[in-house]
Design goal:
The protein is an alpha+beta fold and 680 residues long. It folds into 3 domains: 181 residues, Beta-Lactamase (2-Layer Sandwich), CATH 3.30.450; 151 residues, 2-Layer Sandwich (Beta-Lactamase), CATH 3.30.450.40; 223 residues, PPM-type phosphatase domain (Phosphatase 2c, domain 1, 4-Layer Sandwich). Helices cover 44% and strands 22% of the residues. The strands form 4 sheets. It has a 6-stranded antiparallel sheet. A hairpin with a 2-residue loop joins β14 and β15. α1 runs antiparallel to α4 and α5 runs antiparallel to α6. The longest helix has 56 residues. The radius of gyration is 53 Å and the shape is flat. One of its GO terms (cellular component) is membrane. This is HAMP domain-containing protein. It comes from Silvanigrella aquatica.
Length: 680
């Protein structure tokens, strides 16, 4: 639908709606006013006759009552008057009837032509107490229909001023408000005709004005916009006024000029983007980027700074200027400013990123990849006359910078691919080294049986354990977990293995006593070693446990590691419970950390289970952790099995729970069963 019919329909609906609401309000208001006046007038008529009618009922003189009723019919609205005594029995009344010639005739009622009694309960509900003001002895108007109403007056008689009043009966006055309905209908017709006439007058006048002042100019703008869509840059003829449509026409013509200019600029940017992206090296892309910035954005020269890591990083160390390899820390004030907003910034002072004195204003452009991660920055040098970067120059710089970022990413990708093959070989070597670090040659003894399990989350892991024979009938178990996994964690485990081997040599040589304090001393020494190596970036949890088979004692100390589990057997019953060694800070967290050892008893036939948190923190497809409860239940199920079968079935239960979800962390287990002579 075109605009003109829409405006006509809208004006018609609005005008007719408003006028209809106004008419409805006025008619309802008049109806309420007329009805209120009618009620007041008839109450006044009846109240003036109450005294006369009460006297007639007191004297039981019907003629007096008829004489008192007849003057009321002069109002022309009274239909019927009836009087009843206090018991509801008919006394007298007057009614009007229309003859065949449509003449009104007043007819006296008697007991033969009307009911001798009326609903006494109804009359009692309308009864009013005696009052010196007659109108207060009349009920409110009772609506019998839309145009017929009724008033009930209470008849009282009082002989003298000092005598008591006596209730005699009721008078019922029926009247019509048909004349009010007729007047309201006349007003409705008048309002409707007035509303229709006024609505159409307003619509015609408004349409004539809108056609000349709004619709016609808009039609011209539509035609001009269609010309632009077809490639023809038409302008709209400007009016002589200064209203909104004249301003719109001026803005439209300005927009056409800008579109034409922008299309030419887009062609240039498209050409520049293709050439920059196709460049064969960063040096070549910088040269092309600079040439187009000078051409399209009026720059004088540029300087490119890139992350020294040749990688997109927000947490980079420094940037290097490609023209002369000058390196600057990320904490340069201008860099901090650009990193906080990641927006193009105009530096009006004589200081640029390199803190060199210049005679230019410098625009610093952050180079951000598609993930909004910082890759470097570009300094665009402009004359001192440039105090503000306009929107067009900003768009040109951002568009060229996007293509420049793509070219840089392509070059860095090629460099990464070249290094990836070497890196994979290094990871394979690191994995092989770590495999040799894990203590697979656990000392064989008639005092115990053992079984192990170890699986990394990546090629290199951070879990490590070692079992050392430190004296006859004594072994030391070290079971640890580096925070995280991968190559850095594997390197920490290598350092831990080397330090542990040296400590065990000292114990075997007698330099350190193999007593109950040994686990705490080992953790303290390893803490200092890992602190120097990991520099508080990589931490390690560990439990160190000395098992003395002669005294049947366990001495254990923990650096924040998961608690070992002891499985006991009593006849056909078995029990799994976790033991909690004295716990200190994780290894590598703080210097001069001290640890304590805690003593536990064991019996032949029991077994101890060491594990890392990788198994209990593994998740099912519904993202629910395996947890200590499920792990304990699995150990209880397989408690009677040989250590090798026990480890196999416990890990099978865990991986069944994981249901194919990749493990997030390394998993390691060590089970040692204590033997007695019978087991041997």
């Amino acid at each position: 639908m075109k605009l003109a019919p829409k405006i006509i329909i809208l004006l018609l609906a609005a005008t007719f709606g408003v006028m209809s609401l106004y008419s409805f309000y006025q008619i309802n208001r008049a109806a309420k006013s007329f009805n209120t006046d009618a009620e007041a007038n008839h109450i006044l008529l009846l109240s003036n006759s109450l005294g006369f009618l009460s006297k007639s009922l007191w004297e039981l003189d019907k003629d007096i009552s008829i004489r008192g009723m007849k003057p009321l019919f002069e109002a022309g609205t009274i239909r019927k008057i009836q009087m009843y005594d206090a018991d509801g029995n008919f006394f007298s009344g007057i009614d009007i009837k229309k003859s065949a010639e449509n003449k009104v005739e007043i007819v006296e009622q008697d007991s033969s032509t009307t009911d001798k009694s009326v609903n006494l309960k109804y009359l009692l509900s309308q009864k009013k107490p005696f009052d010196l003001t007659p109108s207060k002895m009349i009920s409110v108007m009772i609506n019998k229909s839309d145009i017929y109403h009724e008033l009930v007056g209470s008849l009282w008689w009082k002989e003298t001023e000092f005598s008591e009043s006596k209730f005699l009966g009721y008078v019922i006055l029926d009247f019509s408000t048909e004349y009010i309905a007729n007047r309201l209908w006349e007003q409705k017709i008048t309002f409707i005709l007035f509303t229709i006439g006024l609505s159409f007058s307003i619509i015609i006048l408004c349409y004539i004005f809108l056609e000349a002042q709004v619709i016609s100019p808009i039609r011209k703008l539509v035609e001009a916009s269609l010309d632009i869509a077809s490639g023809k840059f038409s302008r709209v003829q400007l009016g002589k006024g200064n209203d909104e449509l004249d301003k719109l026409s001026k803005n439209f013509n300005y927009m056409v000029d800008k579109i034409e200019h922008s299309l030419n600029l887009i062609r240039g940017l498209s050409e520049a983007s293709q050439v920059i992206v196709k460049s064969r090296s960063i040096k070549e892309s910088v040269e092309i980027y600079e040439r187009y910035l000078i051409s399209l954005a009026d720059a004088i020269k540029i300087e490119v700074w890139l992350n020294v890591e040749n990688e997109a990083l927000d947490d980079f160390k420094s940037v290097i200027r490609l023209s002369d390899s000058l390196e600057k820390s990320r904490h340069e004030p201008i860099l901090e400013k650009i990193l906080s907003s990641k927006e193009v910034a105009l530096e009006s002072s004589n200081a640029n990123l390199a803190n060199e004195s210049t005679n230019y204003n410098v625009i610093i452009v952050p180079l951000l990849n598609s993930k909004n991660i910082f890759m470097g920055a570009v300094e665009c040098y402009y004359n001192k006359s440039l105090h503000r970067l306009d929107e067009e120059k900003s768009r040109v710089i951002k568009s060229l910078s996007t293509s420049f970022v793509t070219a840089i990413e392509n070059e860095w990708h090629i460099l990464r691919e070249k290094n990836r093959a070497n890196l994979e070989r290094d990871i394979e070597l690191a994995s092989a080294v770590q495999d040799s670090i894990i203590s697979k040659n656990i000392p064989v003894s008639s005092l115990y049986k053992y079984s192990t399990f170890f699986k990394t989350a990546s090629q290199c892991g951070g879990d490590w354990f070692g079992v050392y024979q430190i004296a006859e009938g004594k072994i030391l178990v070290l079971f640890g977990d580096v925070t995280g996994h991968g190559t850095p964690a594997a390197l920490i485990t290598a350092v831990t293995r080397g330090a542990s081997d040296m400590l065990m040599q000292c114990v075997q040589m007698g330099a350190v006593q193999a007593n109950s304090d040994l686990p705490a001393k080992v953790l303290k020494s390893l803490n200092e070693c890992i602190l120097d190596t990991g520099r508080q970036t990589y931490l390690m949890t560990m439990v160190a446990t000395l098992i003395d088979f002669k005294s049947q004692k366990i001495y254990s100390s923990s650096a924040g590691h998961t608690p070992p589990a002891i499985i006991s057997f009593k006849g056909s019953k078995h029990e799994v419970k976790y033991i909690y060694p004295a716990t200190g800070a994780r290894l590598g967290f703080a210097k001069e950390t001290t640890y304590e050892s805690k003593e536990f008893d064991f019996q032949p036939g029991q077994q101890i289970v060491f594990y890392t948190d990788g198994i209990i923190e593994g998740e099912s497809p519904s993202n629910r952790e395996y947890g200590l409860k499920n792990f304990k239940k699995s150990m209880e199920t397989h408690a009677y099995q040989d250590p090798e079968e026990f480890v196999k079935n416990v890990t099978d239960d865990a991986y069944s729970y994981f249901a194919g979800v990749p493990q997030k962390d390394d998993i390691a287990l060590l089970v040692i069963r204590f033997l007695d002579d019978h087991n041997n």
